[in-house]
């Protein structure tokens, strides 16, 4: 009984004004199979929320386009993933772009390498996709690319970040010579410090792309640790490992309140920071994440149909 009482969520606390301001315009991510379980996105998300659609290897493009069409019809800004390593060739990329645009009116995309080790065809990196010029010719106006505040051993096996930084400089140059509105959507992290340090380092290197910081929505600790290890989350994983050592916290859902509050305070104190807004990975379910934003960040989470 004591454990059950300890696990019960405390009474709602007053909304932190800084956190509410930082969470305005937050984005979130879904997959076709999880979207099918949501009866009404407008009951969960604010009007016009940017919704990324994750393209997992093996997902039919028809399912992706159908999800995009549904979200667009509900008034959300749709941003499907374009993972280079699962796109076989230029013709496939052109077909995907045409279908998203023709059937769902999509003009935004997250361009990334993808989570598979070996390319399925001609493309290995997001830069190769951008170099095709197909997004520009199709009228895509917003192109986001991946950011890795804690490094990425898939790109830099040695553990450094030389290749990552070189790629970011290329993407900044691409943004400078095109009309695309670009931003960095980052991997999720659990500590604000490495994110802030990374943002400062990018600015010093002449990179000016806004950073949309990835955070994990409410989820069980075991779920988060599994995803964090699989996705290569770096030093901030220690936050979860420390939490796991406290038996009393194992029954509680992790919530991103602390990391987001720290980021909000930093942004308020440093308005010129590249850190621009939050992107939520709903690892514990989109309903739980949307509810958390509504309860914790006030008007930033007000659903469209309320």
UniProtKB/TrEMBL annotation:
InterPro entries, A to Z: FAD-linked_oxidoreductase-like (IPR029041)
Entry superkingdom: Bacteria
Keyword Oxidoreductase set for record: yes
GO molecular function: oxidoreductase activity
Keyword Oxidoreductase: yes
Keywords, in A-Z order: Oxidoreductase
UniProt-recorded name of the protein: Methylenetetrahydrofolate reductase
Organism: Primorskyibacter flagellatus
């Amino acid at each position: 009984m004591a454990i059950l009482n300890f696990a019960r969520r405390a009474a709602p606390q007053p909304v932190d004004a800084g956190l509410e301001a930082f969470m305005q315009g937050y984005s979130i991510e879904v997959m076709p199979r999880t979207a099918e379980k949501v009866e009404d996105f407008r009951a969960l998300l604010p009007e016009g929320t940017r919704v990324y659609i994750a393209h997992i290897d093996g997902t039919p493009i028809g399912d992706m386009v159908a999800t995009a069409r549904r979200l667009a019809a509900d008034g959300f800004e749709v941003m499907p993933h374009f993972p280079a390593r699962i796109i076989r060739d230029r013709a496939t990329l052109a077909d995907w772009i045409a279908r998203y645009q023709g059937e769902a009116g999509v003009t935004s995309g997250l361009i990334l390498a993808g989570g598979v080790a070996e390319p399925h065809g001609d493309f290995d990196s997001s830069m190769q996709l951008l170099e095709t010029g197909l997004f520009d010719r199709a009228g895509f106006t917003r192109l986001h690319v991946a950011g890795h505040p804690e490094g990425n051993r898939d790109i830099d096996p040695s553990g450094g970040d030389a290749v990552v930084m070189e790629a970011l400089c290329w993407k900044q140059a691409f943004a400078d010579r095109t009309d695309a509105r670009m931003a960095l959507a980052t991997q999720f992290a659990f500590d604000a410090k490495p994110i802030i340090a990374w943002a400062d380092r990018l600015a010093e290197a002449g990179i000016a792309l806004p950073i949309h910081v990835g955070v994990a929505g409410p989820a069980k600790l075991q779920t988060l640790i599994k995803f964090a290890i699989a996705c290569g989350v770096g030093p901030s994983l220690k936050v979860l490992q420390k939490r796991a050592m406290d038996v009393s916290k194992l029954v509680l859902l992790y919530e991103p309140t602390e990391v987001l509050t720290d980021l909000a305070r930093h942004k308020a104190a440093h308005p010129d920071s590249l850190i621009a807004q939050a992107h939520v990975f709903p690892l514990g379910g989109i309903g739980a994440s949307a509810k958390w934003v509504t309860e914790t960040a006030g008007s930033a989470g007000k659903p469209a149909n309320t």
